[in-house]
Amino acid sequence: MTQGEQRCDLVLGGGGVRGVAHIGALTALEEAGYRVARVAGASAGALAGSFAVAGVGSSALKELFDELDFTRFALADVLGRLRDNRAMARLLSRLGDGDDTDPMTWITEILSSQGIETFGDLKVTDVDPDAPVEQRYRLVVRCLDVLNRRVVRLPWDYERFDLDPDAQPVAQAVRASMSIPFVYDPVRIGNRDTGAQALLIDGGLTSGFPVDVLDRVDGRPPRWPTFGIRLLPRPPVDPELPSSTLSLARLVVDALLDTSDQLAPTSSCDELRTVRVDLSEVGTLDLDADEEYDLFSDGYTTMRDFLSGFSFEDYLTRCGRGGDAPGAVAAGADAAGTDAAGAVAAGTDGDHAEVARSTVEVVDDAVTELAGEPADP
Fold first, then answer.
1. Is 202 a catalytic residue?
2. Catalytic: which of 43, 58, 179, 260?
3. What pLDDT is attached to residue 25?
4. Handedness of CA 142, 206, 200, 14 (dihedral sign)
5. Between the N and C ends of the chain, which has fewer C-beta atoms within 10 Å?
6. Three-state SS for 15?
7. pLDDT tens-place string over residues 127-181
8. Beta strands in 13-107 (DSSP E)
9. Beta strands 150-154; 139-145: pairing state
């Protein structure tokens, strides 16, 4: 680290297009002298977090997102499916169909420009090579496996599917974590020879990572803080009843995404390190929201104000037995910037398993209904 620089871990919530606020928050952290050590993220948080640990600077991140056509980025898979129909392909051509921004390609190119291709490129350098998988990587992203109806944390859970974590593409995991149903196609992973497979969708549909997911459990004090960033909407003032099954499906997805990340802090420590960005008027799928609202400034201002009152000494007092690794609570463990002496809690899906099953059932029901009814006119 350079003189005056300090490290932090981040737990980044989802939020669709609201994820632009994460870029503002990262900018405020960089200006305050923080370097991101590790990130746990879901959906939009996985996207922003992957770029942060890859070393993409905040100014470059802002430029990338300023230039991004969110509509074509979000609808790339939808337009691709439409083009499979010759009549629709001709219609799109006549309407002046332009170039799409394929999310997988876009993410891959940005990460590759930083020398990041697989999770092997994001390994923690100062832990034992034989340390548990939860301790070896700087990034973990959350997905929902609709095939097996459980939460999946990548790269931690690749071995479930007979895959080598070091060899798996980071971009694919990030793309899976942001696969909102009906918008993006799900991502298939696994070893087809052994039959261990998963079909992954947006990891923010059940809940994001708890803010203590990266905490150490060996009783040692943290060497740097963890900040959890939550992008919080509010319910619509004048909600409208759905007019069709398709509009009902969208309401279901919106409700799951909007409520999943509103995890109330369970301790004074979690309260101290949770940063709430109020994005009251912005919906997850409001693709033109960044033109109407300054999401970057919302994230930047909230984080800047939070850091102005933050004291690491107070953090050590209230979070003295958790922080920068090794370990985890129910969701798993990780270790960066420490030795590997800490004991690691068992990494299970825990209380999220039932939520995952319920979410899959809701999505399944919506798909079944959609198959028998026409779309909105």
1. yes
2. 43
3. 96
4. negative
5. C
6. coil
7. 888 888 888 999 999 999 999 999 999 999 999 999 999 999 999 999 999 888 7
8. 34-42
9. antiparallel
